[in-house]
Amino acid sequence: MRIVVDDLSGAEIAEFLAEHVRQMRSVTPLESKHALDLNALRSPDVTFWTVMDGEVVVGCGAIKRLDAAHGELKSMRTSPARKRSGIASRLLGHVIAEAERMGFARLSLETGSDDFFLPARRLYEKFGFDYCAPFADYRPDPNSVFMTKRISHLVS
């Protein structure tokens, strides 16, 4: 398995992300859906990684730069057929290390409050993310929880 920076030009990752958006729409009210679409993920302020097993996409994740020291974790997804196989843990560890290498002092995220998102919240807790107030442009939302992790000593 390898984790690669992806320019999002391939058909397989486009379909993988389209399925992610469809799934989020099926479990999250439209007004609470914060998943970025393919065009938004191609923005210069986003770094996107794909997890490949051979030539098959099995996971993905991204960081969106909020400011010089703060990044937002976006589009974390594991192939449904590969859930609970360690892909998400490996990817999250990689993304956190890359975020620190990129100069971020803090990494934050928004995820769902519904039971569907419980495995994701547990993963983030395991990696030291703490629950926090909404950040950036987010507002309080009963369908969302917000988490943050200090990844550098530069943040007080």
From TrEMBL:
GO terms for molecular function: acyltransferase activity, transferring groups other than amino-acyl groups. Keywords: Acyltransferase, Transferase. Coiled coil: none annotated. Pfam families: Acetyltransf_1 (PF00583). SUPFAM superfamilies: Acyl-CoA N-acyltransferases (Nat). Signal peptide: none annotated. Residues 3-152 form the N-acetyltransferase domain. The keyword Transferase applies. It comes from the Bacteria. This is GNAT family N-acetyltransferase.
